[in-house]
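> Could you send the Teichoic acid ABC transporter ATP-binding protein prediction when you get a chance?

Sure thing. Input:
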Amino acid sequence: MAEQLLIGHPPNAQAPAVERIDSQDIAVAVDGVSMIYRVRSSSEYLRSKGVTARQVKKILGAGWAEIPALEEISFTVKQGESVGVIGTNGSGKSTLMKLLTGKIRPTTGEVYATSTPIMLGVNAALVKQISGRENIRLGCLAMGLSPAQVKEKFEMIVEISGLRNSLDMPLKSYSSGMQSRLQFAIATAVDPDILLIDEALNTGDAQFRARTKKRLDEVRAQAGCVFLVSHSLGTIKQMCDRVIWIEQGRLLADGEPEWVCEQYEEYTDHKSNDRKRSAQIVYDRTRLKLNPVTVSFDRGTRPKRAS
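Output:
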């Protein structure tokens, strides 16, 4: 029999007590992941890391402080899904992305993936002294494509980036938006099974967004999955069929984009206008609707750990 993932729901949830999902459909499984950073407890250092004054007062004097970045996060992502990841600054989104790529290991829990995720971020390395054309060639070779494959993929990369008229200009003459478009086009040339995108789609016009959506749809159609981290809810709703909301290091919501984004907008509106009680009501109300999952493997070999 094929290996199964057992996804358990709490007794008071509307979903069945145990839902069986064939693990062959799963691209990523995050199992009870927590991440705690250990930092020096000087007031200036902690505040530079985004720790609140109240937290500083609580932990000062200990020499070292343990700052929780993520707490007991569990979810699975099927092949072919496009998942948006949202949350306010400091909520734990970047930590989650690093865990998914295997750049860091969780303090507790495990991350499993069917293949090594490819991370596309606005800070991805490009060589500013050479042309866009040469950056395409070098970027593809660095990702493991052969010269023949680079030649085969070249036209697609140029088309997605929309930078045909700027290919022979040095990269240092490109705007940050142009560089992000080129980075995205290069990163998707390898047909990744798991692609992580960090804010890169917030740049560019409507035509670029349409081209990127088409390319992401192609990745998903090839049984890949996509994670998109963005502060642009419009981009999230356009590109994703599911949204995960991370807040205060916890998984607050996981569901349909329109509903999750609506709750998030209400929450951030209250927060930005210092309506703390109203923001907390939205937080608590949203969390009550979350069906926590428990990941377990009842047969066969687990998918490999992210590394």
